[in-house]
Task: structure prediction
Amino acid sequence: MTDDLKAFFLIPKTASQRQYEALRAYVLEGVSAKEAAERFGFSEATLYVLAHHLRVGQLELFPPKPTGPKGRRVSPAVCAQMAQLRKQHLSVAEIVARLQAEPIDVSARTVERILKEAGFSKLPRRSAAQQGLSKNHTLLPETAQDLVLEQLEPFHQACQVAGLFVFMPYIIESGVIAVAERLPLPTSARIGKTQALLSFLALKLIGGERLCHIQQYDHDIGLGLFAGLNVLPKPTYAGTYSCLLSASLCQTLQRDLVARLRTWDPGAFAGATINLDFHSIPHFGEQSEMESVWCGARNKAMKGANTFFAQDAETNALLYANADVLRKDGAEEVLHFVEYWQHLKGVVNETLVFDSRLTSYRVLGQLDEADIKFITLRTRSARLKAQTAALNDDQWQKIKLPIPKRKHQTFLAYESEVTLTHCPKPLRQIIMKDHGRAEPTYVITNNRQLPLVQVLVIYARRWRVENKLAELVDFFSLNALSSPIMVRIHFDLLLSVLASFLYRRLAQDLPRFEHHLAPAIFRRFIDMPGKVRFDGHNFEVRIRKHAHTPILLGVKKLQQPIAVPWLEGRPLKLIFTP
Result:
């Protein structure tokens, strides 16, 4: 009757049981260590180690099972009620008081733990007005809406990121507001299109990870004032706004914004070379209509959005971005950028720089026929490497690149003319070897005016676009993709491009910080708490002084009252206090 149970002991299925049976056979049954180990799939040395661990008490084959309640004592309905109360910006003490009035007996520690698990962060220290009480103890509006200055009473409120107001004169000068007013952007009865765009831009400038995680800011009256609202919109509005946009409207908005930025800051678009690159944004949703793309950050293929970027190689300013690039259309995207840039400038006289995987030889031929200069790499092949190995030593010339931080500055180069498939005209090819890589590198270009060394220096600077992409990922949360809807991705990408440009423009006015990226500028100059004050006519933003305040005091436009168009031209003054 027990034959059917013998397999349980003779053929153990778990690692712990195999260890137990092997040790039992070795210790009690007198089986040799070698035979006992082989019987249960171990090596003899492993069995000796197991026996030693058992002897010194380091091997626990039968860990005690935990006892006690199997689940949380607080019901899911009560947890949902806590989350709803926190969305109304109630503190833990206020939530406990509301629940005990029902009556539901929970401790403050339990409420804190449940809210933390639900993704809510702690509320910052708030004044009575921030907790929802004005001077006459009436509730402040819970829904974001445009400020009506005639009805606005004087106030003095704390602001979590008061340094954000440093961007205000730059936003006004850039002409972003005029562009937004001309286009049919989404609007509502409570929030105008300018205020909506500014609220999203504010969240992007402070590096918010996701629009659905902005509860820590949507009660901040100071940040609301930055956008011309009483408070910033809630996550629901932020999540649905971009769905009201169309892909063509996003493209038009990008084109008009970049055209305006070129007029405002022409030096940012005056470079002679443009870096091009793709970036794959992974999507972690279970259901997604996105196609599978290679995600280098994850080192695997997965569902995601293939995005394309163009960057001025000299100034690092982003010129173009597109979030909806299918794999079958990827090779053609460089042609779409050329058409876009010709529409803005009338001519493409820059040299385009990109790697070998960005496009095809057929597209290279089209660029050459259109007299568009480019520098790229040629894909290595066994035949190409064999031809390179057959070159005589006297055919190579010694080259030194004038790049101080480059590890391998000196190497050998060989220049020739080659004709590629689908390219009607021959191209210029430069082969490099002994440059720190195991195999030769093949650079091809149709720019014959540039000296050989200059061609290689320009291509070596292509890493700048990778640094810019790293900035977009780390600070502007480019990879924090929470939706498979391409329009939403494109709108978020467009905001990242605009915010990145504003950070670059601010850095130009900060001596010795001209080349710092957004994370460093935010940490040193923007991430500062303060207070916002309204006296019935004028606005003041008081920011506490810190180590880098003297640099900001040297920016003239920040020392003068700022006439804010979306606040009816009322003056706003930045004051740095001890």
Summary: Residues 3-55 form one domain. The chain has 21 helices and 15 strands. Residues 132-140 have pLDDT under 50 and may be disordered. The first helix runs from residue 3 to 10.
